[in-house]
From TrEMBL:
It comes from Mycena rosella. GO terms for molecular function: ATP binding; ATP hydrolysis activity; ATPase-coupled transmembrane transporter activity. This is P-loop containing nucleoside triphosphate hydrolase protein. The lineage of its organism: Eukaryota, Fungi, Dikarya, Basidiomycota, Agaricomycotina. It holds the Pfam family ABC_tran. SUPFAM superfamilies: P-loop containing nucleoside triphosphate hydrolases. It comes from the Eukaryota. It is found in: Membrane. Keywords: ATP-binding, Hydrolase, Membrane, Nucleotide-binding, Transmembrane, Transmembrane helix, Transport. One of its GO terms (cellular component) is membrane. SMART domains: AAA (SM00382). It is a multi-pass membrane protein. InterPro entries: AAA+_ATPase (IPR003593), ABC_transporter-like_ATP-bd (IPR003439), ABC_transporter_C-like (IPR050173), P-loop_NTPase (IPR027417).
Length: 282
């Protein structure tokens, strides 16, 4: 009897902890809700032009600034690499573009201020590939097209264009297809497969801005080469590519390289000019 009572009390305590967490999430500050005025025009976005002026950012309203009046312009179709030491502001800059942290200044994406756009419209038009993409439990099809917006032929083309099938050609086990099961978090896929799958999402969504947040830092050189080849061949000329760099060969064919230090832009020029400047400084 005493054991049963103890078990019941333990269950009540566990459920009470769950209620406490729910209450905590309800009480935190929420992001701005969508409004009619925040909806972009139907034709938006048609280009990947990005213009940033005096952008400052911090991780909390009363916290220290992690970016300090950053200004730059990325033309449609340009490939730009972000480099810098740990804590220089590379990831903070990408979070600022998605309005994930409090910001000050102006960010213009395809002619519209991002601060005036609904968050769902902004974030659905920019695709970011992190170091380890997360997948949901279900089929590959449900992860690639959760809302059933595309035909199977389009999805298979995106997977093929991203190099997903090419990566499997030398594997011993069977190929992963659209109806294959995916474990929670994509644990039954390698990190390289998840990265290429994330690239297939980009091709399907036709985003005009793609951000690679050190996406190839945790994969082998061969998989990195497949991803880089897909990026060069499959992305249209109006797609701007921003790469937070980990390996130098990843950004050496970029149009421009941005060097960040302590939240400031130190250099923003072509790879050749940046190397010439560093050589001159030495």
């Amino acid at each position: 009897m005493q054991a049963r009572v103890a078990r019941i009390l333990n269950q009540v305590e566990v459920q009470g902890n769950s209620l406490e967490r729910i209450q905590g999430y309800i009480g935190i500050e929420h992001e701005k809700p969508a409004t009619e005025t925040g909806k972009p025009p139907a034709y938006w976005s048609v280009s990947g032009e990005l213009r940033v002026e005096n952008l400052s950012a911090r991780y909390s309203e009363d916290g220290p600034k992690v970016l300090h009046k950053v200004s730059f312009h990325i033309k449609t179709g340009e490939r730009v690499g972000f480099v810098g030491r740990t804590g220089s502001g590379k990831s903070s800059l990408t979070l600022s573009l998605l309005r994930c942290i409090p910001t000050e200044g102006s960010v213009m994406y395809d002619g519209l201020k991002t601060s005036e756009l609904n968050l769902d419209a902004l974030r659905s038009s920019i695709t970011i590939i992190p170091q380890v993409p997360e997948l949901l439990n279900g089929s590959l099809l449900a992860n690639l097209d959760p809302f059933g917006q595309y035909e199977d032929a389009e999805l298979n083309y995106a997977l093929r264009a991203a190099g997903f099938f090419a990566l499997q050609s030398e594997m011993d086990d069977g190929k992963i297809m659209l109806d294959s099961s995916i474990s929670t978090g994509g644990s039954n896929l390698s990190v390289g497969q998840r990265q290429i799958f994330a690239l297939a999402r980009v091709i399907v969504r036709n985003s005009k801005i793609l951000i690679l947040d050190e996406a190839t830092s945790a994969i082998d050189y061969k998989t990195d080469s497949i991803i880089q080849n897909s990026l060069r061949q499959e992305l249209q000329g109006d797609v701007s590519l921003i790469t937070v760099a980990h390996r130098l060969q990843t950004i050496m064919d970029a149009d421009k390289i941005m060097v960040l230090d302590a939240g400031h832009i130190v250099e923003f020029d072509s790879p050749e000019d940046n190397l010439y400047a560093m050589a001159g400084a030495n």
